[in-house]
Amino acid sequence: MSDALDLHLGPEQRDLYARTRTLAAETLAPIAAAGTPGRVNRALVRGLAKGGLLDRLFSGDEVSAMGLCLIREALARDCTEAETAFALQGLGAYPILQAGPPALRDEWIGPVAAGTAVAAFALTEPEAGSDPAALSLSARPDGAGGYRLTGEKLWISNAPDADVYTVFARTATGDGARGARGLTAFAVPGDAPGLSGAPRDMLAPHAIGSLTFDGVWASDAQVLGQPGEGFRVAMHTLDLFRPSVGAFAIGMARTALDLATGYALERHTFGRPLAQHQAVGHRLADLRAQTEAARLLVHQAARAHDAGMPDPGLAAMAKLLATEVAQAAVDAAVQFHGAVALEHGHPLEHLYRDVRAPRIYEGASEIQREIIARAMFRAAAPAPA
Ligand SMILES: Cc1cc2nc3c(=O)[nH]c(=O)nc-3n(C[C@H](O)[C@H](O)[C@H](O)COP(=O)(O)OP(=O)(O)OC[C@H]3O[C@@H](n4cnc5c(N)ncnc54)[C@H](O)[C@@H]3O)c2cc1C
User: Do 166 and 120 contact (CB within 8 A), yes or no?
Assistant: First the structure.
C-alpha cells in the first residue's frame, strides 16, 4: 500500500517495521516451521532475542505501546508463531518489569529478554474467564514469610512449558473473598514444587495448557506490587497489550488481502480474472478500507498510551474493530481462493486458524463493547450537582 498510510510514523518506526518483516520472513519462519505443534519453540524465542526484538520490550522501565504494535503487526505478516512467542514473553514478564521488586527483576528480566527463559501470564481459571475478578486460586499466608497457592489455571499460553508464570491469586478471605479487591500477583517459577500442568490441543499458533497448584510456596519476595493489588497489575498489563492484539490482527488481515489481491489477478473464471468480477473487487476494497481504518485506530490507542493518556475505551475500540475486520478479511481471502485455500499447509489455511482466538482472549469482543459502552455512558452522564 501507499507510503501515505505511514505518514504518522517516524523514520525509526518505519525502519523497525521493515527490519522486523525481513527477520520474520527470512530467519524466524523457518525456525517456526521446525517446531513441535502445541509445545513452546525455544529456538524461536532465542531467535527473537538474537534479532534484538525482546530487548525492545525490556530495555527500559516502560514499554512503548507503539513499538509493540509495529513489531506485532510486522511479525504477523509472515510468521504468526513468532508473533505470539514475542507477545507472550511481554505479557508474561511485563508485570515483573513493572511491579516486581529489584531482586525478582534481576532474576527474570535478563533471561526473558535473552530468550533463555520463557514467560507466561496466568489469569484465567475454569470458572473465571471474561470475569477475572471471580478467580478463586487461593494464596494463604503460611506464617513463614510466604504463601501457599492452591487451585487451577486454564487456557494459559506457554503452559506447561514456561520457566516463569505471573500468577494472579486471591489472598483475601471473608468479605475480600469475592471481587477484584483482595487479589495478589506472584512470579512463580515453572519448576516450583507442587506446580504441575498439561498441554491442551487448541486452535492457536502457540503452546497452551492448564496448571494445577497444589500448595505451591511463594515467598513475600515473589509478590508483584503490594498484596491486594493484583487486579490493578493485571489490568495495567492488559491496558498496554490490548491495542497490540489489534496490531497482530491487522498483520494477518493485510497478508490475507495481499494474497487475495494477487490471486484475483491470476485466477480466471468465466474467461476473465477474478479481479474483473466486480463482486470480488468491491468486497476486497471494503475490507482494505476497514483494515486500514482499524490500523489507524490501533496506532491512536497506542500513541495515547505512550503519551501518558491511556484510554480504555479507545483501546477497546481498536481491539474490537481490528480483530473483527481481520476475521472478515481472512474469511474473504479464503472464499476468493476457493478450495485451494483450505488445503493443509496453505498460508490462508494457517491464517484461518490463527485469526480466530484474538476475538476471545484478552477480553472477548462482547467485553470490549461493554468497555466502550461504559465509557460512553460515563462521559455522557450529568456531573453530580
Ligand atoms: C488461544 C488462547 C490463548 C489464551 N491465553 C491465555 C493466557 O495466556 N492467559 C490467560 O490468563 N488466559 C488466556 N486465555 C483465556 C482467555 O483470556 C479467556 O478464554 C477469555 O477471557 C474468555 O473466557 P472464557 O473462555 O472462560 O469465556 P467465558 O467467560 O465463559 O465467556 C464465553 C463467551 O460469552 C460471552 N460473554 C461473556 N461475558 C459476557 C458479557 N458480559 N456480555 C456479553 N457476552 C459475554 C463472550 O462471547 C465470551 O466469549 C486464552 C484463550 C485462548 C483462546
Answer: yes
